[in-house]
């Protein structure tokens, strides 16, 4: 009888360990009273980080919660909600997608199921519709069982330039400038607290990525609009919560380095390979993923500036 009891306990323990091994646990970081951030991994998308290599967050009001970015999958969104419920009993009323990258919106289906309204810019919606199928196809083999339940669920409440949500005495502004990292990048601004959720317009601690759908000229124009807001606290799209000076160094100044070098190279008739080889990016070698992304960033910036 003792042997049977011991075996049963072992089976239960094994089930518990395997059943929870893939569970997501998110710990919100308090940014200010009633404002929280989920700080994601600064590496690339992996099975271990459930594709959540980006930041998200939420704002608690007396009439409900506003989530900023729904995460990389249905299960990630569900785990984020579990963490929110440890902070407040208020329901999630709105989810704002700050852009069309997978980790900004692929958790929408979970939040829609619980009755939240999904908001984003009209250009982000177009980007999601254009690249969503490819994003789903790319993540499925990497995330495997952690991608269960994930499907493309688009925002239904669209903005073009600016809209203010008034909820529980809090004004929450959704602002679209010019895009940048993706065409639909928008930000969430809390004017009373001067807190900004920047989405992918700001990267710190890790190197930003410039992709075929990115536009560095628009990115810098959007950054200039962010500077006009004079935020005190920034929850960047990637990296630790920061101030504007850190954002300027890790994002704006790096983009300026790329564009200024490539503009001069093109004006001087220098070919792409030579322009890339003579670009000194070593001042940013401390950023995570530098070796992986710096070469591609230089190549794509040259091609972009050449086409202007």
UniProtKB/TrEMBL annotation:
It comes from the Bacteria. Keywords: Hydrolase, Signal. Residues 53-238 form the Metallo-beta-lactamase domain. Residues 1-23 form the signal peptide. One of its GO terms (biological process) is antibiotic catabolic process. The lineage of its organism: Bacteria, Pseudomonadati, Pseudomonadota, Betaproteobacteria, Nitrosomonadales. SMART domains: Lactamase_B. Coiled coil: none annotated. The gene is cphA1. One of its GO terms (molecular function) is hydrolase activity. InterPro entries: Metallo-B-lactamas (IPR001279), NDM-1-like (IPR050855), RibonucZ/Hydroxyglut_hydro (IPR036866). CDD domains: metallo-hydrolase-like_MBL-fold (cd16282). This is MBL fold metallo-hydrolase. Belongs to the metallo-beta-lactamase superfamily. Class-B beta-lactamase family. It comes from Sulfuriferula nivalis. PANTHER family: ACYL-COENZYME A THIOESTERASE MBLAC2 (PTHR42951:SF4), METALLO-BETA-LACTAMASE DOMAIN-CONTAINING (PTHR42951).
């Amino acid at each position: 009888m003792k042997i049977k009891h011991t075996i049963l306990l072992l089976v239960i323990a094994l089930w518990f360990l395997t059943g929870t091994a893939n569970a997501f646990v998110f710990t919100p970081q308090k940014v200010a009273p009633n404002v929280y951030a989920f700080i994601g991994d600064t590496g690339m998308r992996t099975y271990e980080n459930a594709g959540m290599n980006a930041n998200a967050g939420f704002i608690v009001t007396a009439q409900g919660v506003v989530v900023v970015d729904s995460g990389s999958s249905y299960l990630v969104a569900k785990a984020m909600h579990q963490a929110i419920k440890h902070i407040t009993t208020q329901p999630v009323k709105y989810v704002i997608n700050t852009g069309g990258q997978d980790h900004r919106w692929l958790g929408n289906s979970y939040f829609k199921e619980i009755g939240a309204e999904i908001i984003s810019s009209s250009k982000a919606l177009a980007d999601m519709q254009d690249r969503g199928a490819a994003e789903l196809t790319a993540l499925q083999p990497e995330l495997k069982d952690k991608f269960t339940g994930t499907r493309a669920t688009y925002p239904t409440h669209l903005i073009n330039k600016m809209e203010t949500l008034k909820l529980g005495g809090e004004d929450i502004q959704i602002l679209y400038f010019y895009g940048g990292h993706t065409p639909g990048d928008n930000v969430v601004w809390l004017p009373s607290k001067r807190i900004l959720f920047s989405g992918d317009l700001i990267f710190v601690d890790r190197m930003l990525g410039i992709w075929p759908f990115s536009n560095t000229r628009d990115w810098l124009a959007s950054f200039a609009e962010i500077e006009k807001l004079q935020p005190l606290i920034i929850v960047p799209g990637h990296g630790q919560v920061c101030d504007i000076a850190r954002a300027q160094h890790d994002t704006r100044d790096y983009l300026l380095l790329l564009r200024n070098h490539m503009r001069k190279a093109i004006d001087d008739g220098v070919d792409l390979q030579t322009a890339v080889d003579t670009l000194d990016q070593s001042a940013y070698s401390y950023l995570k993923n530098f070796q992986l992304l710096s070469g591609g960033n230089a190549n794509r910036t040259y091609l972009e500036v050449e086409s202007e």
